[in-house]
Write a structure and sequence with these properties.
Largest sheet: 6 strands, parallel
Distance between the termini: 56 Å
Subunit structure: Homodimer.
Catalytic activity: (S)-malate + NAD(+) = oxaloacetate + NADH + H(+)
Number of strands: 11
InterPro entries: L-lactate/malate_DH (IPR001557), Lactate/malate_DH_C (IPR022383), Lactate/malate_DH_N (IPR001236), Lactate_DH/Glyco_Ohase_4_C (IPR015955), Malate_DH_AS (IPR001252), Malate_DH_type1 (IPR010097), NAD(P)-bd_dom_sf (IPR036291)
Helix content: 40-55%
Binding site for substrate: 106, 112, 144, 178
Oligomer: single chain
Bound molecules: nicotinamide-adenine-dinucleotide, (2S)-2-hydroxybutanedioic acid
Radius of gyration: 20 Å
GO biological process, one term: tricarboxylic acid cycle
Strand order of the largest sheet: 3-2-1-4-5-6
Strand content: 15-25%
Length: 338
């Protein structure tokens, strides 16, 4: 009896809405671009996160299937799917955290900046939705080129009168994840015990690992430092070439995105000493955006840390990073202020 089935589906929906509203102490999280290479594993991992009570999956394609699939996982978060621009507002209303991996990835031979023409418009439209429907949400931007898409987001929020620099973060966590892995490999350590700060931005020479500030303290020969810096800066390209046209990093990125989103949620919950690297509005250098360590708290970014002591190799890297970043930031700002 199809009518009976429909009634049951309605009851199920009412019950899950009721559960989402009730006792659960978690947060409301939306993923924009949830059906993509990053979006799918990211959605799965966020469904497993005990700090999430409601998970909204939005994309312009395939969300009904991804949502149905993920909703069968017996974890706490209530999952809802949203398809296409006419459902964007419902996807965003009431969200505490919005994670954005929407947009096209690189193919071999492309730079991240080659994605600008397509992804800039996607990020702009999605940020207009955020400004309208959840202006107080923490926003994690993954869409490339991050060095330009974060400035675009800031301009959109400024135009809408909702800009809060404490709530806008470009996700550079994958650079830290790679740095920890590659350094651990060279030194024969467990990657879980290594923490390398990576500052600057998220493309080529703007990715600046500060190996001199590694925890636990370790020393490197100049050959080791040069090899590691280059491998960390080219980690994305290494994956793009290995995938040979099938896209860029998705699984390690989903892992890194969840590590970062979880830190944002722990900050919102009020945990002390939640510190991660991210590309954020900044006064640490003369540039308006820069990646460095930030402390996350109830309001988003509670503190942006200065870069700390650097060796000569890192200081030279910083000058190169700033030069390229200045252009990428300006490109984003001028696109969004048109
Ligand atoms: P993908 O093509 O597999 O997935 C992208 C998804 O975005 C698709 O499902 C697509 O339908 C969706 N999408 C397109 N336009 C949209 C819109 N207007 N609204 C909502 N969704 C939309 O790509 P991917 O491999 O998941 O990568 C996504 C983005 O993340 C790329 O720009 C990539 O360069 C970037 N990326 C960033 C990092 C980082 O460290 N920040 C790491 C890896 C990838
Ligand atoms: C990465 O670092 O893996 C991403 O930015 C994707 C890319 O294009 O390299």
């Amino acid at each position: 009896n199809p009518h009976k089935l429909q009634m049951e589906a309605k009851t199920v929906l009412e019950r899950s809405n009721c559960r989402a509203k009730g006792g659960s102490p978690g947060f409301n999280v939306a993923i924009l671009g949830a059906s993509g290479g990053i979006g799918q594993p990211l959605s799965m991992l966020m469904k497993m996160n005990p700090l999430v009570s409601v998970l909204h999956l939005y994309d312009v394609a395939n969300t009904p299937g991804v949502t149905s699939d993920i909703s069968h996982m017996d974890t706490g978060a209530v999952v809802r799917g949203f398809l296409g621009p006419q459902q964007l507002e419902n996807a965003l209303t009431g969200m505490d955290l919005v994670i954005m991996p929407a947009g096209v990835p690189r193919k071999p031979g492309m730079t991240r900046d080659d994605l600008f023409n397509i992804n800039a418009g996607i990020v702009k439209t999605l940020c207009e939705g955020i400004a309208k429907c959840c202006p107080k949400a923490i926003v994690n931007i993954i869409s490339n080129p991050v060095n330009s898409t974060v400035p675009i987001a800031a301009e959109v929020f400024k135009k809408a009168g909702t800009y809060d620099p404490k709530r806008l973060l470009g996700v550079t966590m994958l650079d830290v994840v790679r740095a920890n892995t590659f350094v651990a490999e060279v030194l024969g350590l467990d990657p879980r015990e290594v923490d390398v700060p990576v500052v600057g931005g998220h493309a080529g020479v703007t990715i600046l690992p500060l190996l001199s500030q590694i925890k636990p303290p370790c020393s490197f020969t100049s050959e080791e430092a040069a090899y590691l810096t280059s491998r960390i800066q080219n980690g994305g390209t290494e994956v793009v070439e290995a995938k040979a046209g099938a896209g860029s990093a998705t699984l390690s990125m989903a892992y890194a995105a969840v590590k970062f989103a979880d830190a944002c949620l722990r900050g919102l919950r009020g945990d002390a000493d939640v510190i991660k690297c991210a590309f954020v509005p900044s006064v640490v250098t003369e540039l308006p955006f820069f990646a460095s360590k930030v402390r996350l708290g109830r309001n988003g970014i509670e503190e942006v840390y200065t870069l700390g002591p650097m060796n000569e190799f890192e200081r030279a890297g910083l000058e190169m990073a700033k030069k390229e970043l200045a252009g990428s930031i300006e490109k984003g700002v001028s696109f969004a202020s048109k």
